[in-house]
Design a protein that fits this description.
The protein has 734 residues and is α/β, with parallel strands linked by helices. Helix content is 32%, strand content 16%. The longest helix is centred in the first third of the chain and has 29 residues.
Length: 734
């Protein structure tokens, strides 16, 4: 075992257990909180042992103790949550004899487990620790040789890949260098840099060099960077190595999984633990440990991956400490009976059937399973019944400890009716599963923090969904809910909700004041829309907002707007509906970076106002947003604008750009603007030339003129438009 990983895991597990003991089913009962104080002290002691790991026969023994403690506390928390589910309010107010016995039994069990390491003799430990030291060294050197052999598998940053080699340059050689970090608070740290070059002399050698040009073993270099990280960062990186190699990962998905797994400390004074996780993610990106592979339109990260050389280095370590288990052979389950049990299972659907049918499945105990993640790709219309088989096996146990169920991308998985029995579940990811319904018991998942049914056919949820006290992220697929959200005041993401007059804004939505992302489609009267906007103006933490106004036939209708200037954190604004007028500059949130207008039916040129928004990076004027013939970008306007889209503006004929306007523009996308005569020459020949021009469904004459007039360094893309591309609503949000 590698002690560094054990310590990181200990910090993460102890932190998760502290958070578990601070959850509402326990904290609402003050007597129980008092009874559990010895357990919290034991957790502090357990983490302290990890600091003195050299004193005992640690690694395997310590991990076993750590896992046993986690099992007992999480089982206790599960039973408390189940009791609260059964008895409701009474369970919060009364401390029954059963509760007292449960607390005392937990304390006795923790004390007995802790004695396994607290009484270890130093002399015996020193001898065994020395043996483990040699074992660790052998393992490190083995990993180094393996890394050297696999080093050609590293992810290639686009900016550093050399051009295709000539015939006399046969081999790609990578060097690993380091540079001081630019941020003031990270001056002592260095950033991992991977560069590539073709070198004929080194045709059969893959090498690593330090900044002085001396050869270094990749294991040594990576070990140095990894050792400098804090324990939470190490654990997050180890977890990241469970994702398939060289596969892009949604940043949204990764951050929510880190939260659900309990890898980051939740501070009482910090209302948004997502901010802490985001900061940790950004630090790892700054250090070169995580690579950004795709950006959003505003240049924020959308997709990422772990550099494959790091994955080769970290994945064996993560599996050695039992952080996760990757099942790769459907006919073999021997390795699933590890001493720590399988706590996180990762595999595709082709192997899931083995969990229920293979003879080794009988030895696999799913009761210890905390996380199940699938990276399966949809197989046409084949239903993933195997998922239901696995979940039924888990639910049949008296205690279910599953915290994460991530089936994103699995085609139509089967979910059991008793899904609500998973009282510890925090993350239920069903995006792009194309499910058409959820079990009614989903409303019983009292600890659920993330429910994502976006891009599914689910059109209803049980009313009890609003009673989930811990729910933070609710991503829907245009679902109208019968009951107002009267209890879920913890929500920070509410996307895909459909509103009508049946849901009073003041009584329901008015309680949600911590939202950072909001996407609503509504059929409301002018008066009700005004009340909706009054509530939105109070959401001072809001960062992303999408509003769609429709009539009783589902056709886009009038959208009533009020001042949004109070939303100082708002960066993404998407307005879909007919506007009587464009808001004045003083009514706009001045920090907006991405603005999308669709079906606005504006007759007056909006560019004079929009050009004065100081932070605007992306502007999308989509289908029928502007009905006039001429737009003018005034002098000095759009200082920071980088991306501009004109889609389906049938009346637009003339477009003028004055001096010093749009000087930062890099990408221009024009679609189905059939009457537009030309692109202003000032844009085509500006000092900082356009990087990309994308023309879709434009006339041949228009394309020919642009091809002749554009700068030599500007890329021109001509796309024939198919039906799937006609998206007049812009981005679909989170």
């Amino acid at each position: 075992m590698i002690k560094m990983e054990v310590k990181a895991l200990a910090v993460g597990v102890v932190q998760k257990l502290k958070d578990t003991l601070n959850e509402q089913p326990i904290t609402k009962n003050k007597v129980m909180m008092h009874q559990l104080k010895p357990v919290k002290k034991s957790l502090e002691k357990l983490q302290g042992f990890s600091e003195e790991i050299d004193m005992f026969q640690m690694s395997s023994n310590y991990l076993c103790v750590l896992c046993e403690v986690a099992d007992e506390i999480e089982k206790f928390a599960f039973r408390v949550a189940r009791q609260r589910k059964r008895f409701g309010f009474v369970a919060n107010q009364m401390f029954l004899l059963h509760d007292l016995n449960s607390c005392r039994m937990l304390i006795r069990k923790i004390k007995k487990i802790m004695s396994k390491i607290s009484c270890s003799p130093k002399d015996e430990a020193a001898t065994k620790d020395q043996e483990e030291y040699h074992h660790d060294n052998d393992e490190v050197y083995s990993n180094k040789r393996e890394l050297a052999r696999k080093s050609s598998s590293v992810v290639w940053p686009i900016s550093t890949i050399p051009s295709v080699p000539s015939s006399n340059k046969k081999c790609l050689v990578r060097s690993l260098t380091t540079i001081p970090h630019s941020q003031e608070n990270l001056l002592k740290k260095k950033k991992l840099m991977l560069t590539y070059s073709y070198n004929k002399r080194e045709a059969n050698k893959v090498g690593f060099e330090d900044e002085n040009g001396h050869d270094q073993c990749p294991g040594e270099v990576l070990a140095k960077y990894y050792a400098d990280l804090c324990e939470h960062s190490k654990l997050c990186l180890l977890y990241l190595s469970l994702f398939p190699k060289n596969e892009d990962i949604s940043v949204r998905r990764l951050i929510r999984l880190w939260l659900a797994e309990g890898f980051v400390e939740r501070r009482c004074q910090q209302p948004f633990p997502e901010d802490l996780v985001q900061k940790l993610f950004e630090d790892l990106v700054d250090l070169g440990m995580i690579q950004i592979t795709k950006l959003k339109s505003d240049n924020s990260p959308k997709k990422c991956r772990l550099a494959s050389i790091l994955q080769d280095y970290l994945s064996p370590k993560a599996q050695n400490i039992g952080l996760f288990y990757i099942h790769q052979k459907s006919e073999c389950f021997e390795d699933a009976t590890a001493p720590f049990g399988v706590r996180r299972m990762v595999h595709d659907m082709s192997t899931t059937r083995a969990v229920a049918t293979n003879k080794w499945a009988r030895k696999f105990d799913p009761s210890n399973l905390r996380s199940y993640l699938s990276f399966n790709r949809p197989h046409k219309d084949t239903a993933a019944k195997e998922v239901g088989i696995l979940l039924n096996r888990i639910i049949k146990n008296d205690v279910c400890l599953l915290r994460v169920l991530d089936l994103e991308g699995v085609n139509n998985p089967t979910l059991p009716d008793k899904l609500g029995h998973l009282c510890n579940l925090k993350y239920l990811g069903l995006r792009r599963t194309y499910l058409d319904s959820l079990p009614e018991s989903v409303g019983d998942l009292s600890n659920l923090e993330t429910l994502d049914v976006k891009h599914t056919y689910v059109n209803s949820l049980p009313d009890s969904i609003w009673k989930l006290d811990n729910l933070r992220h609710l991503n829907l697929n245009n679902i109208s809910l019968a009951m107002p959200p009267s209890s879920s005041s913890t929500l920070v993401t509410l996307w895909g909700l459909v509103l009508d007059e049946k849901i009073p804004v003041n009584e329901g939505l008015g309680m949600l004041l911590n939202l950072t992302e909001l996407g609503i489609k509504f059929q409301l009267s002018t008066r009700s829309q005004g009340m909706l906007l009054d509530w939105i103006a109070k959401l001072v933490n809001l960062q992303s907002l999408r509003l769609i106004s429709v009539d009783d036939k589902g056709i886009v209708s009038e959208l009533v707007l009020k001042s949004l200037v109070t939303l100082t954190k708002l960066s993404h604004l998407n307005l879909i509906g007919k506007l009587q007028r464009l808001p004045a500059l003083y009514e706009f949130p001045l920090n907006v970076k991405v603005l999308t207008l669709s079906i606005s039916h504006l007759n007056n040129d909006p560019m004079e106002t929009l050009g004065k928004l100081p932070c605007l990076i992306v502007l999308r004027l989509l289908g029928d947003s502007f009905m006039g013939k001429r737009i003018i970008c005034h002098q000095g306007g759009f200082k920071k604008l980088e991306v501009l889209k004109f889609w389906n503006l049938p009346g637009l004929e003339e477009w003028d750009v004055e001096e010093e306007a749009m000087e930062s523009l890099l990408q221009l996308n024009i679609r189905r603007c059939h009457k537009l005569k030309k692109i202003p020459s000032r844009l085509l020949l500006k000092t900082r030339p356009l990087k990309d021009i994308i023309l879709e469904k434009m006339s041949d004459d228009f394309v020919s003129r642009i091809r002749t007039a554009k700068s030599m360094v500007t890329s021109l893309t001509i796309r024939p438009l198919d039906g799937n591309q006609d998206n007049t609503l812009g981005d679909s949000g989170t």
